[in-house]
Amino acid sequence: MHTVTSPASGLVGTADLDGRPTCCSLYHRAVELIGKRWTGAILIVLMEGPLRFCEITQVVPDLSDRLLSERLKELEAEEIVERRVYDESPVRVEYSLTDKGRALEPALRALKSWSHSYL
Fold this sequence. Notes:
Blueprint: E1 2-5, E2 12-15, H1 23-34, H2 39-46, H3 53-59, H4 65-77, E3 81-86, E4 92-97, H5 99-102, H6 105-118
Antiparallel strand pairs: 1-2, 3-4
């Protein structure tokens, strides 16, 4: 086994001798990705449908514009969130989950349910 770094996220994991990520490293990478501060909250609100930047800041209290921008760029790089620009006046930009992002919904909903029961 050896250490590998994801080009998109910079997350570090382990790989077998053929360069394939190991099971635990994939799990760890997923937890690190969605466990970053505010990422889970952003994904939960985007599960309800596309939102503009300002709409996300309205429904996720205490999230700074700088951090929201950073997290959205990270999620775009991982192809979990899509940024769509509409050629209107004024220009409209919306963020939505990709198929890859929507595949996280069962896990996120289960975690949300668990948090309501146990935290």
